[in-house]
Write a structure and sequence with these properties.
Layout: H1 27-32, H2 37-45, H3 48-58, H4 70-79, E1 86-91, H5 100-107, H6 109-123, E2 127-133, H7 137-152, E3 168-174, H8 183-190, E4 214-218, H9 219-231, H10 233-237, E5 247-254, E6 260-265, H11 270-277, E7 287-292, E8 298-301, H12 311-316, E9 325-330, H13 335-349, H14 355-373, H15 378-394, H16 398-402, H17 405-422, H18 433-443
Parallel strand pairs: 1-2, 1-4, 2-3, 5-9
Antiparallel strand pairs: 5-6, 7-8, 7-9
Helix pairs in contact: 2-6, 2-9, 3-4, 3-6, 5-7, 6-9, 13-14, 13-17, 14-15, 15-17
Bound molecules: flavin mononucleotide.
Length: 444
């Protein structure tokens, strides 16, 4: 019998186009697949406002987390008074389960740099920085190699391609602190200061690196720019959903048959991603949830497998697009344990500058530990919920503001598991310390 559903739904590659076809260390290979045609066209045929107009009309939104409209951000920096202007590519990627930007930087260094150079022309910047975590040595090596080769071919540096436009790019290494992915902390880190966030406004678009207007975009955002300008805003806007255009690269991991990187049109359903592309759950186990959005995200249960994945739908479900990590869980995952894992991550990665995040994440982690140990009461659960509210609303940056999300979303969809740990002193998935205790007591 012929299966009605195809094994693989067609992925659509914009960022990962020509996947594996070229040597990422050879500029001529990139040129053969239309590399730099967008840059040459932009520099010789388009004005900066025309470039910004194309990016705005495409509907491209930032791929680093919040989905801010890219064209609007470019326009704000272009219009901001003050010189010089800077460009930063955010390649910090610290979410557990995320490896999209790493792959894009390793496999498409020229494409990321082409996007940055086009952006620099559009907003009037002459210096850019690529901020990459030091744990990505291959990405760093390939980006540095690409910069050298582009300089040799007059695609970076003075009077690019014989035009009046000049632009230089340097690589800066992050030391692997999650908070350094937050834009104001990242800027402080490039300036040689401790990577702590600061309140916004002012936003980096107005006062960023060294107090100057700064455009900061994610790796994947920049990697979309050359294809978008080659094929046009209308083409890009024809892909995806009404408010989320183009494709998204996801890193599929966890309890899934085919883990790895995928790129799908926005609006593809979770079911298509997990079952058609990812091959479903191995070992005959049942799907339980998919975690999106990293430590600021949430766990989406099976009831919503047919939901189209885009910025709005994920928010409605109490999760978050984030940078594109997707961790699949099966019936052997305990959702309280998952929430505790992400809270431990946020607690360890909190920079400590603001009290709600520094103290609040530690308090929430302690309460979650009490729950998994079987030592908590319903009062502890009420306290956990009120702390979620407080930390979310009073933290200085997105790390603290998002830290309660894994708890809130697991409480929303898997409250019965919390109750089982607290009231019945039982872990339904059989993974928490309370489960071992229960078994010792039965065997005693
Ligand atoms: C704690 C924290 C970590 C972040 N980490 C990253 C990151 O690793 N990469 C990234 O692009 N954006 C990260 N962001 C979002 C950035 O602050 C910023 O919004 C983004 O780089 C803007 O680029 P975009 O508009 O292209 O998405 C992080 C935000 C927070 C609050």
């Amino acid at each position: 019998m012929i299966e009605e559903r195809p094994l693989f739904i067609p992925e659509q590659n914009i960022v990962l186009e020509h996947n594996g076809d070229i040597d990422p260390e050879v500029l001529e290979d990139y040129s053969k697949i239309e590399g730099f045609t967008a840059l040459n066209h932009v520099l010789t045929e388009m004005t900066p406002p025309e470039v910004i107009d194309q990016v705005s009309r495409s509907g491209l939104r930032g791929r680093g987390g919040a989905g801010y409209p890219t064209g609007l951000k470019w326009q704000t920096v272009a219009k901001a008074p003050g010189t010089p202007k800077y460009i930063i590519c955010n390649g910090d990627e610290g979410d557990p389960g995320a490896f999209m930007d790493r792959n894009v930087m390793e496999a498409y260094p020229f494409k990321v740099l082409e996007g940055m150079t086009i952006a620099a022309y559009a907003i009037g910047a002459s210096q850019g920085f690529l901020y990459v975590r030091a744990e990505y040595p291959l990405a760093v090596q390939r980006l540095k190699n690409a910069i050298r080769q582009m300089e040799k071919h007059n695609l970076l540096g003075k009077n690019i391609a014989g035009t009046p436009f000049s632009f230089d790019v340097d690589v800066r290494l992050g030391a692997g602190a999650f908070v350094c992915g937050e834009e104001t902390a990242l800027i402080a880190s490039i300036e040689g200061r401790r990577g702590n966030p600061r309140p916004r406004p002012p936003y980096p678009a107005e006062r960023g690196l060294f107090g100057c207007p700064t455009l900061i975009n994610n790796v994947e955002t920049f990697a979309n720019i050359a294809p978008l300008l080659r094929k046009g805003a209308e083409w890009f806007a024809s892909i995806g959903t009404e408010k989320s255009k183009g494709t998204k690269v996801f890193a599929l991991s966890g309890r899934i048959a085919r883990a790895g990187l995928i790129e799908v049109p926005m609006g593809t359903t979770l079911r298509e991603i997990v079952f058609d592309i990812g091959g479903g759950i191995p070992d005959g186990k049942a799907f339980k949830a998919v975690q999106t959005g990293g430590p600021s995200g949430g766990c989406i249960p099976s009831d919503y497998l047919d939901m189209p994945v885009d910025y709005e739908s994920l928010l409605k479900l109490g999760s978050f697009m984030g940078s594109g990590g997707m961790i699949v869980m099966d019936e052997t995952s305990c959702m309280v344990d998952v929430a505790r894992y992400f809270m431990e991550f946020c607690m360890s990665e909190s920079c400590g500058k603001c009290v709600p995040c520094r103290v609040g994440t530690a308090q929430m982690y302690q309460l979650l530990t009490k729950i998994v140990n079987g030592d908590a009461t319903l009062n502890d659960l009420a306290l956990l919920e009120s702390l979620c509210d407080l930390v979310r609303n009073t933290s200085l940056c997105g790390l603290g503001q998002g830290a309660p999300n894994p708890v809130l979303s697991t409480l929303r969809y898997f409250r019965d598991e919390y109750i089982a740990h607290i009231v019945d002193k039982r872990c339904p998935a059989g993974v928490c310390p309370v489960h071992k205790r229960e078994h010792q007591e039965v065997n005693a």
